[in-house]
Amino acid sequence: MKRIQRYPLLFLDILKHLGCNLTRNRVYKRMRRTLPIVLFGLVVMGLSTSGASFGELSVSPPVLSEPAPTVPREITRSINGNNPITTMEKKWELDYETYFGRNLTDSELQAPDIAKILTQISQKTQTKPAVLWVVPEPEGLVLALVTPGKEPLGLIQPNVITENLKAEVINLYQEITNPRKLQSRSYLEPAQRLYNQIIKPIEAQLEAENIDTILFCLGQGLRTLPLAVLQDGERFLIEKYALTRIPAFNLMNLNYETVKNAAVLAMGASEFKNQNPLPAVPFELSTIVNSDGMNGNITLPITNLENSPQWEGQSFLNQGFTVDNLKRLLSLSPYRIVHLATHAEFKPGKPGNSYIQFWNEQLKLDQMGQFNWKNPPIELLVLSACKTAVGDKDAELGFAGLAFQSGVKTALASLWYVSDTGTLALMSEFYQQLKTTSTKAQALQQTQIQMLKGDVRLQQGELLLSRGEISLPPEIASEGTDNLSHPYYWGAFTLIGSPW
């Protein structure tokens, strides 16, 4: 009799799944009348299909591999991709204009315009780019994907709760940056959960179209997500795609020009009055720029490198690293890459709270628009030692808006402060990759992969790069080996703005 009593409960679950709302008492009443008839019918059907005789009949309880679902879980459903794109582009443009206190653009590109532009860029760069909007909403996580020449793909995941998603981002950040976990892989669980929510639903589309570059347009709470570290269980996202984050597609500089022969202005400080020193900065600047002097002839040994990894330009250290000097040099000289090796921080509150530290003063984020970044246009602004307040709306807006606020096409910055020598390793490899790859995003991708694989590392007083090694000066050299494969060392660095 106990076995028979299971059937009303199973029957109740089936009715709920079909949308029938019956109480348990009503189900029991109906089952008392109908269960004998149902069981007799099942017996007859079983006999007719198996050919068994009544003498061979035995009745067993049903075998269920898992409990019957009581409420269906809607994982993903399709939506009109044009709607979130149009809505979010307008909303986020207003958010950034409100934060920075000025009009930013009059552009109103729609999804078909974006798809056409991606086709044109694809032909120029020989890449396959896609734009992905990731929008946490009260009704779920909205994904909208535009690929070259195609209609947008729109999806919503009602089961993804915004607050849980934001908490997962902070959890991933903490697992990566915890100094006691640099030998651990504890970051993999949140990295894989975020991958499944953000990438997995559109993964088939990305693969079908051979996409190799993704421009992420991220909503509130996700703008400081370390994208490169998302993981599918086998590979990190950076191993599959070149990445950048953009505030909105309408806020991008869409022109493409190669930077392989660009002149570089490299500036920085190794000493500060109220902040920690950065002893590797002098060496960092001299590995980047082939200059006759850095405030007075500094020569460091570079050996066994194919051709010269250095760039033409000028470098200025400590007392030469002033706001006035930067403003003067930008107005006089045709630099297309500006590298600032110094502390920078994106803080909560107004743009004036966030800053880049110079030798004698701070350049506030709201002052960057006063510089001549556009004539000639600065293709790349690099901040090699910065951090941001993860999870804060204003700090996120400042970080994600760094490129267009400064007027440069692309910015390279870090989400958290990475060790001095780890930053040196990444920057040295990045500038080598930038000479050979088609886009800035590809250069950063290859750099991060080289670090992940252990091909870029510090060993016995030398910095090993993909194209050779550099002897380190005694003040920053280490007798041991520093493994830089943990995402703490490479996952912080991200492009903001154009990947091209």
From TrEMBL:
<keyword id="KW-0472">Membrane</keyword>
<protein>
    <recommendedName>
        <fullName>CHAT domain-containing protein</fullName>
    </recommendedName>
</protein>
<feature type="domain" description="CHAT">
    <location>
        <begin position="189"/>
        <end position="498"/>
    </location>
</feature>
<keyword id="KW-1133">Transmembrane helix</keyword>
<dbReference type="Pfam" id="PF12770">
    <property type="entry name" value="CHAT"/>
</dbReference>
<feature type="transmembrane region" description="Helical">
    <location>
        <begin position="34"/>
        <end position="55"/>
    </location>
</feature>
<keyword id="KW-0812">Transmembrane</keyword>
<dbReference type="InterPro" id="IPR024983">
    <property type="entry name" value="CHAT_dom"/>
</dbReference>
